[in-house]
Amino acid sequence: MWALILEGLAIGGLLGLTGAGGGILAVPALMASQGWTVAQAAPVGLLAVTLSALVGTFEGLFKRIVRYRAALWIALISIPTARYGVHLADIVSPVWLTLAFSLVMLIVAYRIFFNKVTDHGNAPCKVNQSTGRLIWNVKTASFLAGIGVVAGLLTGLLGVGGGFVIVPALRKFTDLDMRSIVATSLMIIFLIGGVSISAHVLDGFQYPVSVTLTFVLACIVGMLIGRSLMQRIDSNKVQKIFATTVVGVAMYLIYSALMG
C-alpha cells in the first residue's frame, strides 16, 4: 500500500509540474505494483490522472490562464477516437499493447531530449498578445482538431491522459506561454479522460475500490504539491528527469513483455 501511495504522489507531482507525464507513468506503475496487464491498469490510472487534472483545472480557471475554448474544442474532437481506442484495447493482445505503449514512451522521451517541441517562431496558431488568447480561424481550429484526434485515440487505447501528446503539440503549434499550456493541458486531460472513463464503465469494467481510492487520493495530493512547486523548479530540468524516467520504464516494459 505504501508503494501505491508513493507512486501516486510521484505521478501527481509530475502531472502538476509539467501538465503531462502522469498517465504515461501511472499505467506501468500499477502494472509493477499490482501485477496487472495494461488493460487492467489503464482504467485505474486514467481515473486517478483525470481527477487530479480536475483539481489543476480549477486552479487554472481561477488564475485565468486556461484557454478553455481550445480545451473544449480539442476534447470534443477527441470523443470518437477515444471511444474507438477503448474498443481496440479490448481486442488487442496484451503483449502488443504493452509494446505499443513502450514505443510511444520512447518517442516522447526522444522529443524531450532533443528539444523537438520548443520552436514557437513558426507556430501556425497565434496568440493575441493583448489578451493572451488564441486567435481563432480555420487554421487554428484544424491544428487543434488534429491534436484532439491523436490524444483521444491514445487516451482510449493506452489509458493515458494524453498530456504527453497535448503539451508538446501545443508548444509546437501555438505560441502560448508554458503556464497556459500546462493549465490548458490539464483541462483537456480531464475532459478526454472523463469520456474514456465513461466508455470503460459502459463496457463493464469494475474498479477495485481500495486500490483505486488510495491511488486517486495520492495522485491528487501529488498534483497539489507539483502545482505549488512549478514556479520554483526549472521546467527544462523537470522535463529531462521525466524523459529519463520514461526511458527506464519503457525498457522495463519491453523486457517484461518479451520475456514474460
UniProtKB/TrEMBL annotation:
<feature type="transmembrane region" description="Helical">
    <location>
        <begin position="42"/>
        <end position="62"/>
    </location>
</feature>
<dbReference type="InterPro" id="IPR051598">
    <property type="entry name" value="TSUP/Inactive_protease-like"/>
</dbReference>
<keyword id="KW-0472">Membrane</keyword>
<feature type="transmembrane region" description="Helical">
    <location>
        <begin position="181"/>
        <end position="201"/>
    </location>
</feature>
<dbReference type="GO" id="GO:0005886">
    <property type="term" value="C:plasma membrane"/>
</dbReference>
<keyword id="KW-1003">Cell membrane</keyword>
<protein>
    <recommendedName>
        <fullName>Probable membrane transporter protein</fullName>
    </recommendedName>
</protein>
<keyword id="KW-1133">Transmembrane helix</keyword>
<dbReference type="InterPro" id="IPR002781">
    <property type="entry name" value="TM_pro_TauE-like"/>
</dbReference>
<feature type="transmembrane region" description="Helical">
    <location>
        <begin position="207"/>
        <end position="229"/>
    </location>
</feature>
<feature type="transmembrane region" description="Helical">
    <location>
        <begin position="143"/>
        <end position="169"/>
    </location>
</feature>
<dbReference type="Pfam" id="PF01925">
    <property type="entry name" value="TauE"/>
</dbReference>
<comment type="similarity">
    <text>Belongs to the 4-toluene sulfonate uptake permease (TSUP) (TC 2.A.102) family.</text>
</comment>
<keyword id="KW-0812">Transmembrane</keyword>
<feature type="transmembrane region" description="Helical">
    <location>
        <begin position="91"/>
        <end position="113"/>
    </location>
</feature>
<feature type="transmembrane region" description="Helical">
    <location>
        <begin position="241"/>
        <end position="258"/>
    </location>
</feature>
